[in-house]
Specification:
Length: about 375
């Protein structure tokens, strides 16, 4: 049974009767363009076939009542009067409601069952899926027009200002704007995006190392600061504006560490732009090579990989049919992503998982993915 069928069934059991609408928003994986977002640069994520689904029904009042089928928990709040309480999944939905209200959108109450199959906390952005599904639910019930870019910003603001997680805009943008069979080249400064078709005959495989990032905040802030230092050296606000030629001509004057950090960001932007081009031309081999180069740069220059990610990436690369593999997400744990020829996927996943052996905090896992549409209404 699909998660939407399950959500409808749970709705019948919990609320009684039928839901009026079914909405969905996907998780995502970033193919290339890592740690470029806060430097105003480029990313190339795709929306995956794992998502958050909500089966919802209009209410005549201002209440929002929710049942999380995954947590077997209920929560509710009143749209006229709500505040932050404590870390809990309902705060993502309140945060979305808060930011929609700030835009003077007239909100109406609803009740619904939510159910997701984006693994939580492994870097595939179950939180963005939740935010965009909630925004879509409000838009259906309250009947305001759906502007995907603005709704992505609403999701990001909810996460930044209400939930209190400092995330960039990539996750929400791809969860809102994804297109079936396509990745999305996003300019993180202008928020302009371009859909790029995935090459034929290959699959995007996500490998969860089962390791989770610890102490990531300080390392993340340190990287951001080093990037700012490098940008200031070149007299620009964001590293996005430093051309590779300028960088390599002057890089010697930077301290070694700052030089390495900046070199990653500047070359990663170039790789990401090229990746979109070769992808559109159907050149999967070159895309794989760029993914490999991205990983090596994240490992050696930006220094945000870990042993588990390096191991799973190297195991992936040694399998026949694997065109490229890299860590994906902020780093220090979480997932890798590999580009694998379709006919080799079965052997690839089996062999990599058999060879990958280490103590992990959660179960390692493999997801063979498809690129799907962004937040949408589903036919029941
Ligand atoms: P991720 O990398 O998956 O985005 P986060 O820590 O940012 O990890 O977000 C995970 C949080 O999002 C969970 O702790 C929970 O509050 C909320 N969430 C995600 N998926 C669900 C779900 N299926 N049901 C309820 N809450 C969810
Ligand atoms: Mg998240």
């Amino acid at each position: 049974m699909s998660i939407q069928e399950k959500a409808i069934q749970e709705f019948r059991e919990f609320f009684g009767g039928e839901p009026d609408e079914l909405v969905r928003a996907p998780g995502r994986v970033n193919l290339i363009g890592e740690h470029t977002d806060y430097n105003g640069g480029f990313v190339l994520p795709m929306a995956i076939n794992r998502s958050m689904v909500m089966a919802i029904r209009y209410r005549g009042d201002q209440k929002v009542k929710l049942m999380s089928a995954d947590f077997h928990q209920t929560a509710s709040f009143d749209l006229d009067d709500f505040s932050y309480q404590k870390p809990h999944w309902v705060e993502y939905i309140k945060g979305v409601a808060h930011n929609l209200k700030q835009r003077n959108l007239p909100l109406k109450g609803w009740e619904g069952v939510m159910m997701g199959d984006v693994p939580r906390g492994s870097g595939l952005s179950s939180s963005a899926a939740l935010e965009l599904a909630a925004a879509k639910a409000f838009s259906e019930v309250s009947n305001f027009p759906w502007d995907p870019v603005d709704m992505a910003v609403v999701g990001q603001e909810a996460e930044n200002n209400w939930v209190g997680v400092n995330c960039g805009i990539m996750d929400q943008m791809i969860s809102a704007c994804g297109q079936e069979g396509h990745a999305y080249l996003l300019d993180c400064r202008s928020l302009e995006g371009k859909h790029v078709p995935l090459p034929e005959g290959v699959k995007v495989v996500i490998l969860d190392t089962g390791t989770r990032r610890g102490l990531v905040d300080s390392a993340y802030n340190e990287r951001r600061q080093q990037c700012e230092e490098a940008a200031a050296f070149f007299g620009v606000e964001l590293l996005r504006d430093v051309e590779p030629e300028t960088f390599f001509a002057k890089a010697d004057a930077l301290s070694e560490l700052t030089r390495k950090r900046a070199r990653h960001v500047i070359t990663e932007d170039q790789r990401t732009l090229e990746a979109a081009e070769v992808m559109a031309a159907g050149n999967a081999e070159r895309l794989g090579i760029l993914m490999n180069e991205s990983h090596d740069s994240l490992r050696d220059d930006f220094e945000v990989s870990n042993d588990a990610l390096n191991e799973i990436v190297m195991l992936s690369r040694s399998e026949p049919g694997c065109l490229g593999a890299r860590m994906t997400g902020a780093g220090f744990g979480g997932c890798a992503v590999a580009l694998v020829r379709s006919e080799s996927v079965e052997a690839f996943t089996k062999n990599v998982m058999a060879k990958y052996q280490r103590e992990t905090v959660s179960e390692p896992a493999v997801y063979v993915t498809e690129a799907t549409q962004g937040a949408c209404r589903l036919e029941k």
